[in-house]
Amino acid sequence: MPSFTVFKGTKNDGIQEIKTEKPELKGDQVLLKVTASGLCGTDLHYKAGDMVLGHEGVGIIEETGPDVKFMKKGDRVGWGYEHDCCGHCQQCLKGNETYCPERAMYGFADLDQGSFAHGAVWREAFLFPIPEGMSDEVAAPLQCGGATVFNALHNFDTQPTETVGIMGVGGLGHLAIQFAAKMGCRVVVLSGSDRKKDEAMKLGAHEFIATKDAKELKVSKPLDRLLVTTSAQPNWDLILPIMAPGATIHPLSVDEGKFEIPYMPLILNGLRVQGSVVASRYIHNRMLSFAAQHKIAPILEKFPMTKEGINQAMEKLEKGDMRYRAVLIPHPDTSKNKHILKKALLRFALRILDKFLRYANTKVR
Ligand SMILES: NC(=O)c1ccc[n+]([C@@H]2O[C@H](COP(=O)([O-])OP(=O)(O)OC[C@H]3O[C@@H](n4cnc5c(N)ncnc54)[C@H](OP(=O)(O)O)[C@@H]3O)[C@@H](O)[C@H]2O)c1
Ligand SMILES: [Zn+2]
Ligand SMILES: [Zn+2]
């Protein structure tokens, strides 16, 4: 029976390290060894949720169930927010399995495991092969953050001729700037302050606007599309005047309460508000290929996959100091040590070979 360490967010005792035991693998399930996990803003909402945290996982397949067909032991794969769906409803048949009424998603299903862990058991059907040349730590934040922003752009037909606004330069936002810029769009970044201006411009932004204390926003061209990736809902009164007629707003933030938007500007300018959650598997796979081809990568800060490492990373994210995605690495020292040991063994073997050849040479003479 597979058993592995997981990190759970609890109501009264903070992060707890516990063991999860799973039944023998069945159907297309695989057992994975986790090698990296991103920390998403949504994890903060669940930190007291009595559930195992993390949904930006990357790992290596260690065992395969009886019906696994396409993946094998040793494959490097990622997974994200959705773990299962019914496979036969209208949404599933359309490739919109993220809206399947029987979807199994982070926060609602499989609460005994997540990517803040050393292992996990998931269905092969919900795993994504990691493109060659993309490291585990780069791939991890793409499994939710990358998928979510790419989905908003790609699934809703963003054109290279568009001016796209990205509001909030965090885990999602800093990836969204890169995706939109590589899609050929003009990218306008809206951020609380000027602090992130230089990095946003380096990531591909064409224009940067600090929103704090602004009574009115000025853009050189109205926005055809806006991805809102702030951790709370923005002031819509400030935003609507910079939207082009017929523009689309993608509110991606997870927030409590109501969505309240000035009513007449929405009607009179034919604006569209388009909600969405993460990405279907079809789009997720396309996102990974696009990121690999265009060398889109998160700027990341690494933390050890321990109780202390998770607490540190969460505190930094909550304070707004993360640049720009935390990635938790299980056993960072072991893999580094293994590498050092391998190198030392190789050097030792070469020295022995060298000595042997010299000795053989003297004998021949
Ligand atoms: N819809 C989906 O499928 C989906 C998927 C993943 C995440 N999410 C949600 O998307 C949001 C962003 O996630 P993330 O991982 O990118 O979080 P993050 O790294 O914390 O980034 C959020 C950004 O929002 C801005 N911000 C911080 N505090 C704020 C506040 N009080 N009010 C307004 N803005 C604030 C900051 O950007 P600036 O400094 O530039 O202002 C910050 O970098 C979260 O609400 C998360 O739950 C949704
Ligand atoms: Zn997420
Ligand atoms: Zn379904």
TrEMBL record:
Keywords attached to this entry: Metal-binding, Oxidoreductase, Zinc
Similarity field: Belongs to the zinc-containing alcohol dehydrogenase family.
CDD domains reported in the protein's UniProt record: CAD1
The protein, known as: Enoyl reductase (ER) domain-containing protein
Keyword Metal-binding: yes
Span of domain Enoyl reductase (ER): 9-328
Organism: Recurvomyces mirabilis
Needed co-factor(s): Zn(2+)
GO molecular function: oxidoreductase activity, acting on the CH-OH group of donors, NAD or NADP as acceptor; zinc ion binding
Lineage summary: Eukaryota, Fungi, Dikarya, Ascomycota, Pezizomycotina
Record's keyword annotation contains Zinc: yes
